[in-house]
């Protein structure tokens, strides 16, 4: 076991891990932050997406030790301390951008990265950016709409209902 | 309407708050004190005889608690099948045993051979590798038609063959159907495959068994769509635990789509092992494991023939289907190709004579069972494809041919044993045509051509039987369970309500939509109503969520219980108001005496029920809590018309969906936002089936699509934004809400529209392509164009 | 995963030392290796992560050559832009999250037959720089998952000559989003190079007939009638050898048109 230390959601944390301990496992099991989900084992589904040093990564495709010294942000950091949803989260609720909720943390973290890189993405840019996040419930329609709304754009640009 | 949303309001979902903040509680988020972990050693061959299992070395490895094999389950019940189909000779289907861990033979890649319980999952997996299994390879049967040839290797040695049943429906119509084909002016024939799919809810399955020795109580936490059904099946048929000693909890569940209906061996194992070891045992499926252990869907091979008279009226329909059961009968598998498929073959059309033959076949593959739509997509696909082919052969407009043959009078008794209560197929087709601008198609096709693309449009209709219930009907058809639903409505002294329902929500938004109904009935804010579900300890008996039945059946039970609450509350109000019970009216949460200004508020009545100081104790019990069981007298019949426009890249065969429109009739709608979301998701799954998804085995039974590296899941870039409409509403006539269900429609109705559109594009380009089997991958489309 | 030790050296020298032990293996971004480890298809005793070594990261331009550190992630290459076709290719790998972790050195060392970078390296006539030597791309790609790298040898940088014109066209395998076929076309003063990934059982290859035709006439029309044989092409559930061979022709034309 090796000691790993990192900042997670603004707090310094450390723990004893094996070389093979994934960052997703560390976050879920050691820290109890179960909002980060694991939906596959080939790095495809994106349910485990979180931010490391400000960049979105798949935490099931990275070892905990590789995040030693890093700044990590998980879905649990997105809402305000009083529980108020942030703009993206609120848009997901407003536009029904989630159903079972399992892929949702990864979607929200990905949307946050997208809007940081590209504050006014087109529908096509959103769809392309979501290529690493699979949702089985929504058909993506309302996720795209929510992200567009979160970016302050007119959602009627997303096809009529 | 209640200020925060009653029936018909697009109320935002309250459950979203926890999901968006990462505070949902899914089964894998739960950990029991002192829990051990299980890893299942699974077969890597499709068919083999187990000559020996040596666990000696493995048992001594670090952290190993105990290793179980099939021998540990001698005398324990196997996995039960909940539906018995009777074949065309009146004989029951062949029903093989299905042990929790393999006994004697392995029958598919993924069949569990041994279960290693250890302190950590890594230790369990390390030890599993040290188990020495002596397996003698046997020839595998994968192709259904070969599987039922004489002399084919048998999946189950104790059965007479690999044929589970040979079902004829309606057998009495067979001769008349044959005659109709002889008399037909035109017959269109189509052979097609309904591709095997893997449901792939994003949350893999998880089971945690827990045992309380002091009270001899077992608890199973599991990713289930119907915890009560698991309790009944596992308790009564597998482990022999009476229901009062067994609690099943399905907390937040990350999608189901059918594959989490069934009772699985891993659930029984964890429950059994927790008691045997007196220690909680947790199993978390990996996605790779899910591909070889979750029940698959579809997998039909069909020949369908449509007979038409000289005026293009449908006169008869005949189908012959091979339905893959996989290696064992999953919980509801036999019902899918029969009663959920044959009964839908009339579709939206008044075809007078129909004969359906289904041969269900065992193969060395993962068991196949219900997946979103279950039988109805298979029926819709073949019917709507053969109609499209007929239209092309006859040179008539596919929409006109459909319209000409629509059922227009209701109720309508089909020749395949069901009666449609309401519908308006003309209205949904009219709405669809309004949505899609067919007149502008040629111009769009011209623009596509300029970019080197072929454009096509495909249209189809669908009907489904859902609100899966009528116990009296399904019992006659072989179901070994009733299919009612129940609800308990508990009103608290201060006026808030808790509805405990047997329906389970795993994405459908019941926690929001169910309160909208109760709030509307009473005239209070929906925020005063809380939904409790997913725990057999906290809810009355329930049959769960599948077959688009939650609101139609579960919601109706809730309405009935709420009606009882209102009736009792009115009695209390009458007493408080010193009026006759019959004069009491309830509106906006106020009980008033008709024709007077005397009234008492909902909260005063509920308080009186629990603080019965001035209370007619001789007439009414204190308290305000009611339970209702609701068992409808028919299925519901949502229907609709769908259209898809595609572009095909003739150089690569790649199909792009340019637009997709859905006009549905779901009857009344409680929360239109949620309904639209359900349709969107169904459409993506149907488009996934049509273009991307296909579960493939090689001839030795190795799974070639064992991960997302090879099984193509629809992603955001694969689907368009959808145009959906549910304004055509013919309310269901036999449930109190007039609702029909919307969960499966999109998945049922969309595959034929996509395939019809691609065939249309190719034919417009002069290609002699009449059919391509799904998924219409680029390579398949290219091959079809260049055959 | 089997148990292993994970080391995170911060200098190349330490990494080279750490990789001297017999069962040690280098870990780039891990986007392919970690899933492989999960399936227990690899059994290293030590994994030596290269992503904490600053000297292996970054992109700089020297004249008409782009020098990319071996541990530079795809996202950084995608954003750099001075070799537009290369940035375009990097931006098409996997998805945003994969591009934030996966590295050019990791991709080239793994040499997956469906990976994108090998096509760029081979078509560009890149030089693979290691801690031991410099290897020309033409000598580097040996076969399926096989390269000229020795045990313990680390890709420290990739030198990409920036051509007159270039383009990459990728046709995705629908599930994995790797290249079912990808074609990278490069035009330089010395002629045209065409590298194809995804198609061949032998891994990335140069399509010499197309190169000759395009060297005399850099236009899609020049490829008319040219075909790669389907013998030796990959056949699987996503496409037959014939389909892949056909796509090579289609995508090469498109790449030429795109390169302009």
* Shape designation of chain C: globular
- Per DSSP E runs of 2 or more residues, the count of β-strands of chain B stands at 30
The radius of gyration over CA of chain B amounts to: 27 Å
Write down the CATH class of the largest domain in chain B: Alpha Beta
Number of helices of chain B: 19
Structural class of chain C: alpha+beta
Straight-line N-to-C gap of chain C: 47 Å
Low-confidence stretches of chain C: none
Global outline of chain B = globular
Strand numbers in spatial order across the main sheet of chain C: 4-5-10-6-7
Could you tell me the number of beta strands of chain C?
A: 14
User: Measured on Cα atoms, how large is the radius of gyration of chain C?
Assistant: 18 Å
- Low-pLDDT regions of chain B: none
Helix content of chain C: 25-40%
Q: Main β-sheet of chain B, in a few words?
A: 7 strands, mixed
The overall average pLDDT of chain B, rounded, is: 96
Structural category of chain B: alpha+beta
InterPro entries (chain C): CO_DH_flav_C (IPR005107), Diverse_Substr_Oxidored (IPR051312), FAD-bd_PCMH (IPR016166), Mopterin_DH_FAD-bd (IPR002346)
Pfam families (chain C): FAD_binding_5 (PF00941)
Protein name (chain C): Xanthine dehydrogenase family protein subunit M
Keywords (chain C): FAD, Flavoprotein, Oxidoreductase
Please describe what this structure looks like.
The complex is a heterotrimer of chains A (161), B (787) and C (260). Chain A has 5 helices and 5 strands, in the order E-E-H-E-E-E-H-H-H-H. With 161 residues, chain A is of the alpha+beta class. Chain A has 2 domains: 74 residues, Beta-grasp domain (Ubiquitin-like (UB roll), Roll); 67 residues, [2Fe-2S]-binding domain (DNA polymerase, domain 1, Orthogonal Bundle), CATH 1.10.150.120. In chain B, the strands form 8 sheets. In chain B, strands 3-5-1-13-10-11-12 form a 7-stranded mixed sheet, sandwiched between helices. Chain B has 3 domains: 155 residues, 2-Layer Sandwich (Aldehyde Oxidoreductase, domain 4); 187 residues, Aldehyde oxidase/xanthine dehydrogenase, a/b hammerhead (Aldehyde Oxidoreductase, domain 3, Alpha-Beta Complex); 319 residues, Aldehyde Oxidoreductase, domain 4 (2-Layer Sandwich). In chain B, 62% of the residues are buried. Chain B is built from 19 helices and 30 strands. Chain C is α+β, with helices and mostly antiparallel strands and 260 residues long. Chain C has 3 domains: 45 residues, 2-Layer Sandwich (Uridine Diphospho-n-acetylenolpyruvylglucosamine Reductase, domain 2); 108 residues, 2-Layer Sandwich (Uridine Diphospho-n-acetylenolpyruvylglucosamine Reductase, domain 3); 95 residues, CO dehydrogenase flavoprotein, C-terminal domain (Enolase-like, domain 1), CATH 3.30.390.50. Chain C has 10 helices and 14 strands. In chain C, a hairpin with a 3-residue loop joins strand 6 and strand 7. In chain C, helix 3 runs antiparallel to helix 4. Chains A and B meet through helix 2, helix 3, helix 4 and helix 5 of A and helix 1, helix 17 and strand 30 of B. Chain B: This is Xanthine dehydrogenase family protein molybdopterin-binding subunit. Chain B: It comes from Maritimibacter dapengensis. Chain B: Keywords: Molybdenum. Chain B: Pfam families: Ald_Xan_dh_C, MoCoBD_1, MoCoBD_2. Chain C: InterPro entries: CO_DH_flav_C (IPR005107), Diverse_Substr_Oxidored (IPR051312), FAD-bd_PCMH (IPR016166), Mopterin_DH_FAD-bd (IPR002346).
């Amino acid at each position: 076991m090796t000691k790993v230390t990192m900042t997670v959601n603004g707090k310094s944390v450390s723990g004893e891990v094996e070389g093979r301990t994934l960052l997703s496992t560390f976050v879920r099991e050691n820290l109890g932050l179960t909002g980060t989900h694991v939906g596959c084992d080939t790095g495809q589904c994106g349910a485990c997406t979180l931010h490391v040093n400000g960049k979105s990564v798949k935490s099931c495709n990275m070892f905990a030790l590789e995040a030693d010294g890093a700044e990590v942000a998980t879905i649990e950091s997105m809402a305000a301390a009083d529980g108020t949803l942030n703009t993206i989260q609120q848009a997901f609720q407003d536009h029904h951008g989630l159903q079972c909720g399992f892929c949702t943390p990864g979607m929200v973290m990905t949307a946050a990265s997208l809007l940081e890189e590209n504050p006014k993405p087109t529908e096509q840019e959103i769809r392309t950016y979501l290529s690493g996040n699979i949702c089985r419930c929504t058909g993506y329609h309302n996720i795209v709409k929510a992200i567009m709304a979160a970016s302050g754009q007119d959602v009627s640009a997303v096809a009529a209902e | 309407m209640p200020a925060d949303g009653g029936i018909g309001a697009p109320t935002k979902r309250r459950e979203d708050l926890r999901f968006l903040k990462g505070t949902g509680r899914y089964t894998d988020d739960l950990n029991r004190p002192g829990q051990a972990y299980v890893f299942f050693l699974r077969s890597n061959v499709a068919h083999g005889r187990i000559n020996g299992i040596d666990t000696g070395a493995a048992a001594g490895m670090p952290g190993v608690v105990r290793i179980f094999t099939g021998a540990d389950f001698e005398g324990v019940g196997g996995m039960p099948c909940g539906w018995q189909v009777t074949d065309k000779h009146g004989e029951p289907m062949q029903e093989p045993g299905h042990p929790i861990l393999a006994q004697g033979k392995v029958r598919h890649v993924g069949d569990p051979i041994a279960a290693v319980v250890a302190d950590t999952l890594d230790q369990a997996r390390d030890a599993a590798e040290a188990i020495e299994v002596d397996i003698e390879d046997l020839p595998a049967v994968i192709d259904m038609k070969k599987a039922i040839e004489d002399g084919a290797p048998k999946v189950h040695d104790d059965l007479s063959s690999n044929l589970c049943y040979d079902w004829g429906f309606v057998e009495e119509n067979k001769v008349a159907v044959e005659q109709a084909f002889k008399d037909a002016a035109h017959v269109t024939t189509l052979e097609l495959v309904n591709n095997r799919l893997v449901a792939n809810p994003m949350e893999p399955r998880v089971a945690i068994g827990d045992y309380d020795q002091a009270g001899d109580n077992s608890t199973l936490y599991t990713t289930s769509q119907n915890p009560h059904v698991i309790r009944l099946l596992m308790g009564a048929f597998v482990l022999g635990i009476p229901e009062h000693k067994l609690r099943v909890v399905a907390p937040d569940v990350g999608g189901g789509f059918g594959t989490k209906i069934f009772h699985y061996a891993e659930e029984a194992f964890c429950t059994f092992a927790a008691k045997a070891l007196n220690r909680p045992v947790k199993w978390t499926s990996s996605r790779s494991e899910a591909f070889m252990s979750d029940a698959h869907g579809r997998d039909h091979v069909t020949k369908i023939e449509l007979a038409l008279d000289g005026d293009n009226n449908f006169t008869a329909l005949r189908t012959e289907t091979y339905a893959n059961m996989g290696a064992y009968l999953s919980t509801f598998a036999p019902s899918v190709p029969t009663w959920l498929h044959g009964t839908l073959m009339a579709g939206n059309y008044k075809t007078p004579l129909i004969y359906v033959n289904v041969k269900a076949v065992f193969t060395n593959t993962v068991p196949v069972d219900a997946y979103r739509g279950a039988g109805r997509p298979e029926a819709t696909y073949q019917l709507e494809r053969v109609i499209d082919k007929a239209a092309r052969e006859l040179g008539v407009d596919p929409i006109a041919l459909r319209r000409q043959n629509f059922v227009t009078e209701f109720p309508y008794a089909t020749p395949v044993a069901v009666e449609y209560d309401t519908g308006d197929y003309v209205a949904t087709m009219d709405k669809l045509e309004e949505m899609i601008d067919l007149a502008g198609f040629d111009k769009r096709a011209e623009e596509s051509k300029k970019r080197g693309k072929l454009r096509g449009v495909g249209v189809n209709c669908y009907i489904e039987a859902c609100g899966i219930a009528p116990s009296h009907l399904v019992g006659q058809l072989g179901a070994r369970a009733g299919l009612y639903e129940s609800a308990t409505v508990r009103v608290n002294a201060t006026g808030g309500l808790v509805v405990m329902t047997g329906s389970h929500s795993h994405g459908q938004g019941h926690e929001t939509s169910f309160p909208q109904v109760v709030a509307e009935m009473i005239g209070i804010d929906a925020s005063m109503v809380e939904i409790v579900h997913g725990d057999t300890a906290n809810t009355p008996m329930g049959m769960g969520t599948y077959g688009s039945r939650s609101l139609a059946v579960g919601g109706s039970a809730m309405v009935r219980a709420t009606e009882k609450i209102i009736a009792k509350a009115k009695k209390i109000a009458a007493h408080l108001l010193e009026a006759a019970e019959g004069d009491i009216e309830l509106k906006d949460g106020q009980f008033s005496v008709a024709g007077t200004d005397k009234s008492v508020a909902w909260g005063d009545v509920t308080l009186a029920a629990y603080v019965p100081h001035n209370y007619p104790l001789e007439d009414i019990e204190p308290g305000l809590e009611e339970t209702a069981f609701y068992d409808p007298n028919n299925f519901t019949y949502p229907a609709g018309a769908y259209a898809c426009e595609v572009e095909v890249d003739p150089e690569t065969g790649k199909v792009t969906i340019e637009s997709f429109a859905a006009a549905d009739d779901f009857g009344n709608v409680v929360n239109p936002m949620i309904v639209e979301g359900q349709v969107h998701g169904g459409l993506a799954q149907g488009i996934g089936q049509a273009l991307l998804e296909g579960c493939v085995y090689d001839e030795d039974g190795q799974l070639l699509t064992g991960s997302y590296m090879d099984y193509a899941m629809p992603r955001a870039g694969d689907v368009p934004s959808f145009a959906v409409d549910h304004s055509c509403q013919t309310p269901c006539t036999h449930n109190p809400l007039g609702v029909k269900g919307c969960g499966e429609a999109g998945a049922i109705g969309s595959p034929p529209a996509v395939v019809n559109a691609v065939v249309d594009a190719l034919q417009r380009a002069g290609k002699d392509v009449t059919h391509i089997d799904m998924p219409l991958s680029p390579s398949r489309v290219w091959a079809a164009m260049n055959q | 995963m089997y148990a292993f030790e994970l080391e995170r050296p911060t200098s190349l020298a330490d990494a080279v030392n750490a990789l001297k032990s017999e069962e040690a293996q280098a870990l780039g971004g891990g986007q392919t290796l970690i899933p492989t480890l999960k399936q227990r298809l690899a059994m290293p005793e030590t994994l030596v992560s290269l992503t904490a070594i600053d000297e292996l990261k970054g992109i700089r331009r020297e004249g008409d050559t782009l020098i990319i550190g071996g541990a530079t992630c795809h996202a950084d290459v995608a954003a750099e832009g001075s070799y537009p076709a290369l940035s375009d290719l990097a931006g098409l790998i996997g998805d945003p999250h994969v591009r934030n972790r996966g590295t050019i050195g990791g991709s080239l060392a793994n040499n997956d037959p469906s990976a994108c970078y090998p096509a760029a390296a081979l078509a560009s006539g890149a030089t693979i720089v290691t801690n031991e030597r410099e290897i020309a791309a033409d000598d580097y790609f040996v076969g399926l998952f096989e390269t000229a790298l020795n045990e313990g040898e680390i890709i420290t940088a990739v030198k990409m000559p920036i051509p007159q014109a270039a383009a990459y066209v990728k046709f995705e395998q629908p599930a994995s989003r790797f290249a079912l076929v990808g074609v990278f076309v490069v035009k330089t003063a010395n002629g045209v190079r065409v590298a194809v990934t995804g198609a061949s059982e032998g891994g990335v290859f140069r399509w010499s007939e197309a190169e000759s035709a395009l060297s005399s006439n850099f236009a899609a029309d020049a490829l008319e009638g040219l075909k790669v044989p389907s013998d030796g092409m990959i056949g699987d559930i996503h496409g037959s050898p014939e389909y892949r061979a056909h796509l090579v022709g289609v995508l090469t034309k498109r790449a030429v048109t795109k390169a302009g």
